[in-house]
């Protein structure tokens, strides 16, 4: 019997894939696998729904703590934001989900791994590259690239015809991806970038105008780049991320509406809710400004751009990402300290930072009188630093080239 491990979420696409597989792979056994990376109450009905839809088994793998510790914290330390904005909430979860799919496929001696990503999106690349990196001989089924269903409306009709309940309607047809790091919204009226998102689009974050009228202050503590405490209370990664989500979401922090460049060549518009991730990322960036020297900080910013592209493109299990990660971890050895953040109606910024490894010296930077810095030293520095400019100007004058 053909065995197919299906990356299952209980959403629209994967819900209709189970009967479709059974119709198109005669006699196959579908093994639904849901990797819990913090989808919340979405998973309450997953097992029963998968079995009712035709799956012979349904694995639910609890990977929330691993996701927070080894993936979300990695993204925080890297400072990676795709195209300078997107915190990569979906992208960072895909390699972990793929790893668990491969584990189930090996356990079940499955013939295929199947996913519900569309042929227009990035997730198909992320899933399949990760699977190739971990199990190079495993065959992959991607129904959206071969079936007759052409739209989410078609998929809803297919589900209704097969008696499958789905969590979307033609009136609210958004494609959503949720984990403990973020919630994304795509499709529907968002496909027109000129459309303002509907008022009740966000399901995690409070709309900034409805957030509390009083600012909230929160102190984030880090050890070697890892968030370890909020307001002095130490917590494990998952609990800390959930607490950060609660605080930031209440204050309307972490809503991002962007048009991004997909790997497959088209632009897409999405609205992302990343409350706790935004708070922690901003705090971490502030701490780095205190403890990293200028050259290291500059180069790390360049690395963050490449790192974001690798993660976005599904290149997690690659030598380059691992090598860059080693560099990032090296930069975090002194990234320990406390950052006080102010949150108010969607805004999130630092109002104080301290670290035992601070490179900041009040004695050096003071505008008052000091005995540790001879300002006359600057003259020689400027003369040497500006020497190439001076020599270039002299060359132009000698050759009659206009300096202006």
Number of helices: 13
Overall pLDDT, averaged?
95
Computed CA radius of gyration, to the nearest angstrom: 25 Å
- Report the span from N to C terminus: 79 Å
Instruction: Enumerate the spans where pLDDT stays under 50 for 5 or more consecutive residues.
Output: none
Q: Would you count the extended β strands for me?
A: 14
Helicity range: 40-55%
Outline the biggest β-sheet: 5 strands, parallel
Structural class: alpha/beta
Strand numbers in spatial order across the main sheet: 3-2-1-4-5
The percentage of residues in β strands lies in 15-25%
> SSE string, helix = H, strand = E?
EHEHEHHEHEHEEEEEHEEHHHEEHHH
Overall form = elongated
Could you explain the architecture of this structure?
The protein contains 13 helices and 14 strands. The protein has 404 residues and is α/β, with parallel strands linked by helices. The chain has helices at residues 12-24, 46-53, 64-78, 89-108, 123-134, 152-161, 237-250, 275-291, 294-312, 319-331, 362-365, 377-385, 387-398; strands at residues 3-7, 29-36, 57-62, 112-114, 139-141, 175-178, 183-186, 216-223, 226-230, 233-234, 255-261, 267-273, 337-344, 347-354. The chain has a five-stranded parallel sheet, with helices on both faces. Strands 10-9-8-13-14 form a five-stranded antiparallel sheet, covered by helices on one side. It has a four-stranded antiparallel sheet with strand order 6-7-12-11, with no helix packed on it.
């Amino acid at each position: 019997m053909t065995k197919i491990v299906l990356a299952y979420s209980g959403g629209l696409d994967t819900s209709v894939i189970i009967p479709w597989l059974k119709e198109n792979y005669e006699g196959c056994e579908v093994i639904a696998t849901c990797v819990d990376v913090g989808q919340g109450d979405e998973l309450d009905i997953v097992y029963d729904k998968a079995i009712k839809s035709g799956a012979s088994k349904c694995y639910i793998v609890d990977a929330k703590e691993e996701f927070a510790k080894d993936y979300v914290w990695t993204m925080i330390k890297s400072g990676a934001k795709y195209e300078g904005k997107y915190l990569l909430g979906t992208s960072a979860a895909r390699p972990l989900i793929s790893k668990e799919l491969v584990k189930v496929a090996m356990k079940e001696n499955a013939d295929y791994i199947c996913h519900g990503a569309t042929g227009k999106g990035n997730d198909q690349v992320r899933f399949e590259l990760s699977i190739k990196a971990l199990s190079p001989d495993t065959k992959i089924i991607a129904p959206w690239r071969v079936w007759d269903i052409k739209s989410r409306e078609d998929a809803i009709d297919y589900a209704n015809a097969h008696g499958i309940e789905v969590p979307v309607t033609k009136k609210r047809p958004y494609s959503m991806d949720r984990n403990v790091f973020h919630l994304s919204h795509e499709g529907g009226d968002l496909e027109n970038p000129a459309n303002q998102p509907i008022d009740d689009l966000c399901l995690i974050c409070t709309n900034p105008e409805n957030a509390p009228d009083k600012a909230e202050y929160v102190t984030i503590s880090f050890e070697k780049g890892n968030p370890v405490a909020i307001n002095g209370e130490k917590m494990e990664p998952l609990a800390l991320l959930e607490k950060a989500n609660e605080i930031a979401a209440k204050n309307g922090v972490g809503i991002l509406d962007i048009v991004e460049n997909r790997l497959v060549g088209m632009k897409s518009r999405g609205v992302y809710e990343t409350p706790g991730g935004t708070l922690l990322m901003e705090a971490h960036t502030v701490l780095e400004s205190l403890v990293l020297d200028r050259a290291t900080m500059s180069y790390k910013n360049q690395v963050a751009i490449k790192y974001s592209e690798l993660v976005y493109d599904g290149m997690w299990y690659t030598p380059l990402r691992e090598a860059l990660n080693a560099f990032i971890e090296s930069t975090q050895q002194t990234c320990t300290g406390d950052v006080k953040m102010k949150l108010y109606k969607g805004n999130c910024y630092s109002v104080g930072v301290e670290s035992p490894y601070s490179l900041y010296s009040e004695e050096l930077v003071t505008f008052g009188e000091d005995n540790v810095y001879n300002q006359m030293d600057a003259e020689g520095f400027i003369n040497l630093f500006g020497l190439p400019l001076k020599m270039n100007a002299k060359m132009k004058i000698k050759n009659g080239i206009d300096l202006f």
